[in-house]
């Protein structure tokens, strides 16, 4: 979930550490240098707070 928006990437990307680039109108999801997905933002209000939660391995 990013900014209260669920982003589905598929099972082949499960367990990967990804980087989410927040842009004005969409989210860009990267794994290393590879772009996995681009998803449009449903809420275009500015993101002022960012909480990160992950799974400890």
Short description:
With 57 residues, the chain is an all-beta fold. Helix content is 0%, strand content 30%.
Structure, explained:
The chain is mostly beta strands and 57 residues long. It has no helices and 3 strands. A 3-stranded antiparallel β-sheet has the order 1-2-3, with no helix packed on it. The mean pLDDT is 86.
Keywords:
57 residues, mainly beta, 3-stranded antiparallel beta sheet
Summarize the SSE layout with pairings.
Blueprint: E1 19-22, E2 26-31, E3 34-40
Antiparallel strand pairs: 1-2, 2-3
Strand order of the largest sheet: 1-2-3
| Distance N to C terminus | 19 Å
Q: Could you name the ranges where pLDDT drops below 50 across 5 or more consecutive residues?
A: none
Oligomer: single chain
- Rg estimate, integer Å: 12 Å
Broad structural category: mainly beta
* Beta strand %: 25-35%
> What is the tally of helical segments?
0
Question: What is the number of E strands?
Answer: 3
Profile the largest sheet: 3 strands, antiparallel
Topology order in helix (H) and strand (E) letters:
EEE
What general form does the structure show? globular
Q: Percent helix among the residues?
A: under 10%
Mean pLDDT equals 86
